[in-house]
Amino acid sequence: MNIKCSSINHKENEAIIFCKDCKIYMCKKCDSFHSELFQNHNKISLKLSKEENELFTGLCMEKSHLIEQKFFCKTHNKLCCSECITKIKGEEYGQHTDCTICPLKDIKSEKIEKLQNNIKLLDNLSLNIKDTIEEIKLINEKVEEDKDKLKSEIQNIFTKVRNLINKKEEEILLKIDNKYEALYFNKNYISEIEKLPDKINKSLEKGKIIQNDIEKYKLNSLINDCLNIENSIVKINDIHSNITKFKSTSNKKNFIINQQAFQQLFEFINTLKFIYSCDESEIINTEQFNQINEWLGGEIHSYFLRFSAKKNGCDTNIFHQNCDNTNKR
Question: How far apart are CA 24 and CA 36, in angstroms?
């Protein structure tokens, strides 16, 4: 409630006091002077009135007329003063010129009768309100419990999905490791290859020495050295063969990611609807909703109202037009 001071000099100030004897609203400054002049006047603190209906002065507050309310506007169901109902319309006059107006005495019996009805209504409400409040509390508790349960079920489902995805990821990564194992030399094998140039040079030098001094060698030593050189060459040829094979396979693009499959998976996840409500249906309840899903394989399906006699009328042509050859449930 924001009421201004009745003083012309302080009309922009917020009123904090109403004097019932003077029938004026006063700001802090006016109240100070008023208290010195009229110590015994009956005053009401506006700050103590939390609601506008708690403070009734009998004066019209519309456009700050501050005139006693002696009329009743039936159109707006409110009290008004003579300035409100004047036929002269202006900034401060005629707010209810076009309304149905009557003196207060004409509305008295009607309002008393309604008061008696309202008293009975309030009596009934006062008897039931405590039970109603407790009922509301129980409903709220049930709603909160259902919400937490539903959220927990969804979290469990997504935990299972994440575990399944993680497991699938590990399987795919392991499969990639196994597939690529045959496509490259391991580090130990590369270390052996790096030693080959030195072994080749040593075998070559040994062969030349044997060739130059072949008559000086004992026969068994000669044969042994020749066998060593032959074995080295076999090993070198094997490695060359492996290198050639490696080069031919490693240059090929052996594996590609099926981007289309992943895109379809992403789109599928985005279109999934995990929660459905059949509360708005006038045909099936939650138990029947779950039963139908179970008949259809246990998955949660969405349903669309294709035809309703209530909305579409009892017309077989409209029924077949809406329901025939449709994939939507």
Answer: 16
- Going by the DSSP 8-state scheme, the letter that residue 62 receives in this structure is G
Question: How many residues in the chain?
Answer: 329
Return the domain boundaries, the chain.
Answer: 1-57, 59-99, 184-250, 276-323
pLDDT at 277: 60
Domain 1-57 has CATH 3.30.160: yes
- How much is the pTM? 0.40
Sheet architecture: strand order including 17-19: 24-26, 17-19, 43-45
Spans of the chain below 70 pLDDT: 1, 48-55, 61, 63-64, 182-189, 247-254, 273-282, 285-286, 297-304, 326-329
Q: What is the pLDDT of residue 53?
A: 47
Q: Distance between CA atoms of 303 and 281, rounded to whole angstroms?
A: 10
Alpha helices by DSSP H, the chain: 28-37, 82-85, 104-181, 187-212, 219-250, 259-271, 286-295, 309-312, 316-323
CA–CA separation, 117 and 105 (whole Å): 19
Sequence-distant (6+) residues with CB within 8 A of 134 are none
At 128 the pLDDT is 81
The closest alpha carbon to 100, from 90, 110, 112, 115, belongs to 110
**Nearest Cα to Cα of residue 284 among 300, 299, 298, 305:** 305
Quick one: pLDDT at residue 119? 92
Distance, CA of 148 to CA of 157 (rounded, Å): 14
